[in-house]
Specification:
CATH superfamily: Aldolase class I
Bound molecules: S-adenosylmethionine, iron/sulfur cluster
Radius of gyration: 20 Å
CATH class: Alpha Beta
Helix content: 25-40%
Length: 353
């Protein structure tokens, strides 16, 4: 909707012409329709590109309760968010997480929300797959960087490959559509990309490759050592597969091709080699109620304070609207030899993938 069609009502609420809450439009006329929520910063894995082994996690007192997360997410839905993705840390290790997922499922039933989904490492899927389907979840992103159990143990440090495979089987049996997220890692899984494409093709999984992003200190290794540009990965894939450009969109930042030989789709998330900011419809909420308007910038808004300051949502909604006026045009990630530290101090597990 055009900004001119919005006006401020007598209650201070920004209303649309139809009288409901006006949608969130940022200064670059991008409508904010997608919220990613990191429901916990904790995880049962310690992936080498994501966390250091001895991570310090937030004190529990700083983390929003599930009831507060429900209130916050529901406020965004009122403001026109159509897609919610729960992530983390590992979302399915948060205690009673199914309570939140079931609560949020009510917005699917009313039609206010189009999609409720999760990004998960798959370790808890065997336990939760059926309940997720019952709550209205239809698709999942599952992160798997390798099909070699030994490498899997090395990358995730604490992960159990078989448990994740059991989780995937349970998710499939429950009828969930699966997309595999795979971080491209030089010298680690660069010899496996053909296998991954074939494996996903056989199972009907979409596959998305992600470039390593320079977020958070990860201990000894540097991102420069891990970074494998997807332009190179794609060139490798083209040696064996026919990749046809398609106009497929999931609301996320990936650009997709179809693999002629398998009929499967491959997405490329290339924040470093290709800037995808111009069509960004997303904002990210942490489990402490901090809203990041861009994954690659430090600017953020505290929503916990207005959330807790009153029982109705007026202050909260005003704070959300103010934050959206600060959504930047784009990020400035860069990995190069001059800057060896992370471009953004927080870890990916704070804002989720
Ligand atoms: N634990 C869940 C998982 O692994 O799917 C959800 C959270 S995880 C932070 C979300 C996604 O971010 C995963 O696909 C993970 O591989 C990816 N990721 C983590 N750190 C990253 C980094 N520095 N660069 C690129 N992707 C990263
Ligand atoms: Fe945990 Fe996901 Fe980060 Fe791996 S990528 S450490 S599974 S949050």
């Amino acid at each position: 909707m055009d900004k001119l069609e919005q006006s401020v009502g007598s209650s201070g609420m920004v209303v649309s012409e139809s009288g409901g809450e006006a949608p969130l439009i940022d200064p670059f006329q991008r409508a904010i329709s997608y919220l990613r929520v990191s429901v916990t910063d904790r995880c049962d894995f310690r992936c080498v590109y994501c966390m250091s082994e001895d991570m310090t996690f937030l004190p529990k007192a700083e983390v929003l309760s599930l009831e507060e997360l429900d209130r916050l997410c529901s406020a965004f839905v009122r403001l026109g968010v159509k897609k919610l993705r729960l992530t983390g840390g590992e979302p399915l290790v948060r205690r009673n997480i199914m309570w939140l997922i079931e609560r949020l499922g009510r917005h699917l039933k009313t039609g206010e929300l189009n999609e409720l989904t999760l990004t998960t490492n798959g370790s808890q899927l065997a336990r939760y797959a059926d309940e997720l389907v019952a709550a209205g979840v239809k698709r999942l992103n599952v992160s798997i960087d390798t099909l070699d159990p030994h490498k899997f143990a090395a990358i995730t440090r604490w992960g159990k490959f078989d448990k994740v495979m059991d989780g995937l089987a349970a998710a499939e049996a429950a009828g969930l559509k699966i997309k595999i997220n795979c971080v491209a890692l030089k010298g680690v899984n660069d010899d496996e990309v053909h296998n991954l494409v074939a494996w996903c093709g056989e199972r009907g999984y979409d596959l998305t490759f992600i470039e390593v992003m320079p977020m958070g200190d990860i201990g000894g290794e540097t991102r420069l050592e891990q970074y494998w540009p997807l332009s190179m990965l794609r060139a490798e894939l083209q040696k064996r597969w026919t990749l046809n450009e398609i106009d497929y969109k999931t609301g996320g930042p990936a650009r997709y091709v179809e693999v002629k030989e398998t009929g499967g789709r491959i997405g490329f998330i290339t924040p470093l080699t290709h800037n995808f900011c111009e069509s960004c419809n997303r904002v990210r909420l942490t489990c402490t109620g901090t809203l990041y308007m861009c994954l690659g910038q430090e600017d953020a808004a505290d929503l916990r304070q207005p959330l807790r300051a009153s029982d109705d949502d007026q202050l909260l909604i005003a704070a959300i609207r103010e934050a959206i006026t600060r959504k930047p045009k784009g990020h400035d990630f860069i990995i190069d030899r001059r800057r060896r530290g992370p471009a953004v101090g927080r870890h990916m597990s704070v804002t989720g993938g």
